[in-house]
Amino acid sequence: CDAWGFEFCFALSVSGGCLLKYDVVIVGAGPAGIFSALELVENTSLNVLILDKGADINKRKCPASRGFGCLNCEPCNVLHGWGGAGAFSDGKLTLRAQGVGGWLDKYVNEEELQGLVDYVDGVYTRFGAPNNVYGEDLDRIEEIGRKASLAGLKLVPQKIRHMGTEKCAETLRQMRSFLDGKAKVQTRSEVKGLIVGDGCIEGVETVGGDKILAKYVVVAPGRSGAEWLKSEAQALGLKTLNNPVDVGVRVEVQAAVLEELTEVLYEPKLFYYSRFFDDVVRTFCVAPYGEVITESYDGVLTVNGQSYMERKTRNTNFAILVSTSFTEPFKEPIAYGKYIARLTNLLSGGVVVQRLGDLEAGRRSTEERIGRSTVVPTLRSATPGDLSFVLPYRYLVDVREMLGALDRLAPGLASRDTLLYGVEVKFYSSRLALNECLETPIKNLFTIGDGAGLTRGLVQASVSGVIAARQIVKREKHHKT
Fold it and tell me: What average pLDDT score do residues 32-61 get?
């Protein structure tokens, strides 16, 4: 492996496809893959190719965002393409290394990880991320934490740099422009499988039949590619570890209900241990003055949320997720999450929305009941229905307990008019066994980001890309000496 001499991208006709050679192939153009590429082009002269099954960022258009409802585009333009799912996310940069954002602390010590978080934050600001940071008013945060404790909740304080959906996309566009001419970017190019020989990565094969040889392969498929990565790992005999399965609902309330929390913290990160089942329940992806949106994973429709820097609604939405760690012999957490989402799609034709008061009364919501709610839904395509036909009893009990605790912290949150959208599922549940530089047992094959089960957010996904790239830089410098 170490003796390979690579020339820049030559092509030969091979069985209807092409044979290509690069030094590094990065699979996935989300934040993890982008930051790997940035680190490589700024510190080496390696020839880098970035592949993504979606479109380039200026060609990513979601019909649902223009009022047409989700058309189940394949691939989903919200999730795939340059920038990954992060491109049209809320654009939150969580600047805390510990306790949130993933599992990188299992590979990197706390001090080093915080340094990497700060470094990544600096790169984002260099490319246009705004200067506004939440979570710096320590006195008010301490008071919120005290009130949370009285309600049975644990507040995890964190600093948040909020870009907003539009500014996040613009920042990622600037990164795309910077890489133009320094790395090859090939969108609309889906990777079918990895090419391995004698315990060393040799390249990748695309769905179109191209074989791309490379000394290093960095796999960063995003959450939507988690299932593909797991199947590839199984085919190659790589050990995978199951992360907890995150299933829940997206809650929508009037923005004033959470304003005291969001104006200080932007995203209040709250944890709760349910009384009945002792499950970990948490808030996730708070979108102040934002919108509820849909995402399509291989035809399975789920919900998410986003908020813009300039365009604001009267509502705030956030997820309540229940984390469940399954034991042997269960090995299919992603399939389990998709099963629940498919059941929701089967019953509603898409996403279900229900008033909390209707759920508590044991009845389905109707158009008429939703219409008289004080909370006007921002996702107009959602179908009024009954989440008790979709979510397991255990999850419903956990969600309702969490809502009760949150109501003690933010009175009015558990109003009968509070809207619940189902379901929200996070597909990053399988994690490969990796070393401290995020390399698999297959030499020079790295897996990073949300799709590798390592991270769950923009910053730590970006950090994972830096970790893998720096190891490649280190090896190349060693070879030259």
Answer: 93
